[in-house]
Specification:
Blueprint: E1 2-4, E2 9-11, E3 14-16, E4 18-23, H1 33-42, E5 47-51, H2 54-57, H3 72-81, E6 85-89, H4 120-139, E7 148-152, H5 165-177, E8 184-187, E9 194-200, H6 204-214, E10 220-226, H7 243-255, E11 258-267, H8 304-318, H9 320-323, E12 327-329, E13 339-346, E14 349-356, E15 362-368, E16 371-377, E17 382-391, E18 395-400, E19 403-407, E20 411-416, E21 420-428, E22 432-435, E23 441-444, E24 449-456, E25 461-467, E26 472-479, H10 480-483, E27 489-490, E28 495-497, E29 502-505, E30 515-518, H11 524-527, E31 533-542, E32 546-555, E33 559-563, E34 566-571, E35 575-583, E36 586-595, E37 621-624, E38 629-631, E39 637-638, E40 652-658, E41 663-669, E42 674-676, E43 679-681, E44 698-702, E45 710-716, E46 726-732, E47 741-746, E48 756-757, E49 769-776, E50 784-788, E51 794-799, E52 802-808, E53 815-818, E54 826-833, E55 843-847, E56 849-850
Parallel strand pairs: 4-5, 4-11, 5-6, 6-7, 7-8, 8-9, 9-10, 10-11, 20-26
Antiparallel strand pairs: 1-2, 2-3, 12-13, 13-14, 14-17, 15-16, 17-18, 18-21, 19-20, 21-24, 22-25, 23-24, 25-26, 27-56, 28-55, 29-48, 29-49, 30-47, 31-36, 31-47, 32-35, 33-34, 33-36, 37-46, 38-39, 38-40, 40-45, 41-44, 41-46, 42-43, 42-45, 49-54, 50-53, 50-55, 51-52, 51-54
Length: 853
């Protein structure tokens, strides 16, 4: 029922252009699924793609959940009911900026496990997962009761950097054995029997060349066409990809022969609860919002990109016979400098794509079929010129240089920038009378060829063709601006829900509850907890009252540090860190609070120990090693922010002095190979820069075995590296590590609390604190509900007992989604704030979207 050849996919032997919307059912409530699918279909998509996160359905070993918001079968059923095809991507690894890339946290407790390999321990759990999820996909295959047309094997596996042919074949065969009969696909993970896709945003020509060279007998497709991007805490707003750029890149896909596009994302959604992951780099922790700046925003509202794609889909659907049965050929067009051309030709017509790489509009002409054809193209844009396409039995398009959403049976729309002209030449198959209002112009030749010079002004105009026999055809000539629907904005007179707060202290007490004791702090998995907060406590003795440097020898999340019940500070550096702590003579108590900010979802670093996992050490030393580097044989010193160009195997050296320490931890971001005193260092945790991510390599290394007393020499391999953002050394003595730790869960909403009026709380000291308030809500208040947590520090919030995510007031996220489906007439909000800052400026608003006429 679904097959393919080199040109395109076929369903029931009919060629189809795949226009797929990436929509993750796990990033919005079940109550919103139907609406977002309807909007994707109305926007011209014919397919829905979704990952399936293993850990979402098996949060604890052996406890499977496919109910409520996890009802995968219902999502597939909705797609089938709405006539939408489905691309299923079950992993077992999915990336998706999702915690652990979809792998369950508890797998990291299995001794000797190696993720994403054919190693038996990992595969035995994958088999159990497949036993649960593949039968659901199987039931909804196109060949059975549903519309699943493709199933992906793993995800981006070649970018993982560890080739494992047996692993990929094992996954493919496991799916096949469980009933999958629709085509298998891969993206950056080729396996025999699967169609390979690419993932990218720009450079479609390069991707097409790779596919043509390596995968010649299959259609070209982009599985993740990144039309937006995700955001991370402390980063920039990710709205750099404009609607104009999106249109250009869409045309680049068509001009290079792609006949399957999956928009990643089309709707992004939200990382509710603690599901946001960690992508590359040292502190790339995903925000709660996964809006992605795409076609449908986090609140299910269409954006300008939605309108761009809707027009593009109409154009592509109109010329579907051309693009799905195309023979791509080069064409030598005489064009001005900085203009390029690409031609797609088929038995059903052809399209010539002109690309303008200039920073200004170009007005020019091109010789087509022996005639000089004028055209206008915007700066940094691609213009499709349509040639030799039949429109019913009445006429055919010889040449069109204006843009169009397609020619229907009785009408069409041609658009261009306001104030510009386009060219349309029609071959009439029947006699017709032409009605062409000013300022458009036309000529009819003796062979019934009609040439129009169309003007796209501020007011729309209609060209009418009245054929013999009474039929007619209308061509509306408009400006692009008139087609641009206003993006919905939010009603400024929205409902503001008053909040009256109660407060309760979170007491960092280890005398009761689920306290586990061990020689060193327990990371989240070792403790037996998926995410949330863990507290750590231990006692140590000091010989005198003083300030001492405590080195935290392995941390993978920010740490709040308290000593003797006094707040000392927050460690924001990851991997290892150091902090000055005031200690008193005699017994001291060190207490730490850590929020799991998400596990690596990408790279070879997946499976890192979250929270604290090694014992901190007293009287340590911290050195930043970014200054004072020398090219071997040269006296000039350099900073790692500006690394000189080094050729060949010349060393890039720096020394440091060690007096009395026997342990050393090196943390670098942007580091590849390192030598210490002539010995190569293996980074314990290495995030390798790969084909799609621009983040630097991040690693933690224990270099104690290579450490010497006195001078130590570091040698960095900095070829092809222009800067290194972090290179830190932490020195300490093993005998001064603090032992005998207690680990305990904190910030548990279900635990009883001593509530009192918020204004009675002591706000002078930094201390974690709870707040709660009730608020009223009715649908007539507005179905878009947002909360701002201004002036709060960092933590989590719950609505009616459901955690809606982390918050952190370091940007870029400032507003948080509250699903209307979660609300009742009377509601409760609960906030846990790490520093106990007052919620005086927290506001909840309800809105209705408005569109300005």
């Amino acid at each position: 029922m679904i097959t393919y050849d080199q040109k395109s996919w076929k369903i029931n032997n009919e060629r189809i252009f795949i226009l797929s919307a990436a929509i993750h059912y796990f990033r919005l409530p079940k109550a919103e699924w139907s609406e977002v699918l309807d909007k994707a279909k109305a926007g011209g998509c014919n397919t829905i793609e979704t990952y399936i996160p293993w850990n979402f359905h098996e949060m604890n070993e052996g406890e499977w959940d496919f109910s409520g918001d996890k009802d995968l079968a219902h999502f597939f059923e909705l797609c089938a009911d709405k006539g939408l095809y489905v691309i299923a991507r079950p992993g077992p690894y999915i990336c998706a900026e999702w915690d652990f890339g979809g792998i369950p946290w508890w797998l990291s407790t299995k001794k000797g496990i190696q993720y994403r390999t054919a190693e038996p321990i990992f595969l035995q759990y994958v088999d159990k997962y497949f036993d649960q999820v593949i039968p659901i996909i199987d039931e909804f295959q196109l060949t059975k009761n549903g519309t699943v047309i493709m199933v992906q094997v793993e995800n981006e596996f070649q970018a993982f950097g560890k080739p494992d042919k047996q692993y990929m074949e094992n996954l493919r065969d496991g799916m096949m054995a469980r009933g999958i009969e629709v085509p298998f696909i891969t993206c950056y993970g080729a396996v025999d029997g699967a169609v390979e896709f690419r993932n990218f945003w720009s450079h479609a020509k390069h991707a097409a060349e790779i596919l043509d060279e390596r995968f010649a007998n299959q259609p070209k497709g982009v599985m993740e066409f990144w039309i937006g991007w995700f955001e991370h805490w402390g980063g920039n707003k990710a709205n750099q990809k404009t609607p104009e750029q999106l249109e250009r890149e869409c045309y680049q896909l068509l001009s290079n022969g792609f006949s399957a596009i999956n928009y990643y994302m089309y709707f992004g959604g939200t990382n509710f609860d603690h599901w946001g992951g960690r992508t590359g780099g040292e502190q790339i922790f995903s925000t709660t919002s996964y809006d992605y700046d795409v076609a449908i925003d986090e609140y299910l509202q269409p954006t300008r990109k939605y309108e761009v794609l809707k027009r593009f889909h109409s154009f592509t659907k109109w010329l579907e016979p051309v693009f799905t049965d195309a023979e791509q050929t080069g064409i030598e067009l005489k064009l001005p400098s900085e203009l390029k051309s690409q031609r797609v030709v088929s038995p059903h017509g052809e399209v010539i794509f002109i690309e303008n790489t200039r920073q200004e509009r170009v007005q020019s002409q091109v010789l087509l079929d022996g005639e000089s054809v004028p055209f206008t193209i915007e700066a940094n844009a691609v213009l499709p010129i349509v040639c030799h396409v039949n429109v019913g039995n009445s006429f055919s398009i010889a040449t069109l240089t204006g843009q169009t959403t397609g020619f229907d049976t009785d009408k069409a729309v041609i658009y261009h920038e306001e104030g510009q002209r386009s060219f349309l030449k029609l071959q009439l198959n029947r006699k017709a009378e032409v009605h062409c209002p000013m300022p458009n112009r036309f000529e009819i030749s003796e062979d019934d060829m009609v040439t129009f010079h169309l003007f796209h002004g501020s007011q729309p105009q209609t060209v009418q063709l009245s054929f013999e026999g009474g039929s007619s055809y209308s061509i509306e000539v408009v400006s692009r601006k008139s087609l641009e629907k206003a993006v919905p904005h939010l009603d400024k007179s929205s409902a503001n829900h008053p909040l009256h707060w109660e407060a309760a202290d979170e007491k960092l007490c280890f005398l009761s509850g689920n306290v586990k004791e061990a020689d060193k702090p327990l990371d989240f998995s070792s403790f037996g907890q998926f995410s949330g907060y863990l507290g750590y406590e231990s006692e140590f003795y000091a010989e005198e009252t003083k300030d001492t440097t405590i080195v935290f020898t392995r941390i993978e999340d920010p740490v709040m540090v308290f000593c003797n019940d006094q707040y000392v500070g927050k460690l924001s550096m990851i991997g290892a860190a150091a902090i000055e702590v005031p200690v008193k003579k005699g017994k001291n108590t060190l207490t730490c609070l850590v929020q799991n900010m998400g596990r690596f979802n990408y790279s070879q670093a997946i499976g890192e120990p979250k929270g604290m996992s090694e014992a901190p050490a007293l009287n340590g030393k911290y050195l930043s090693l970014r200054e004072g580097w020398q090219v071997e044989g040269c006296g000039v010193t350099h900073h790692l922010s500006q690394i000189p160009k080094i050729e060949g195997r010349i060393g890039f050296l720096r020394s440091f002095m060690n007096h009395g320490y026997d342990r050393a931890i090196l943390v670098g971001e942007g580091v590849s190979r390192v030598q210490v005193n002539g010995r190569s260092v293996k980074m314990l945790m290495e995030t390798q820069t790969a084909w799609s991510r621009g983040y630097a390599v991040y690693g933690v290394a224990d270099i104690s075995d290579a450490l010497k007393q006195g001078e130590n020499v570091l040698d960095l391999d900095v070829q092809n590296t222009s800067s290194i953002r972090r290179f830190d050394l932490y020195l300490y003595n093993e005998q001064e590590q603090i032992k005998n730790w207690k680990t305990k869960s904190f910030a548990q909403i279900q635990e009883e609390k001593e509530w009192s009026a918020a204004n009675q709380q002591n706000q002078q000291t930094v201390s974690p604190r709870w707040y709660k308030s009730s608020f009223d809500w009715k649908p007539e208040n507005g179905l878009i509900v947002k909360i701002r947590l201004d002036v709060m520090s960092k933590g989590c919030f719950w609505i009616n007992g459901q955690c809606l995510g982390r918050y952190w007031n370091i940007g870029p996220q400032e507003e948080y989604k509250i699903p209307a489906s979660l609300l009742k007439e009377q509601n409760e909000i609960v906030i846990f704030d790490e520093e106990g800052l007052k919620p005086d400026q927290v506001v909840i608003h309800s809105y209705f979207p408005l569109i300005e006429k």
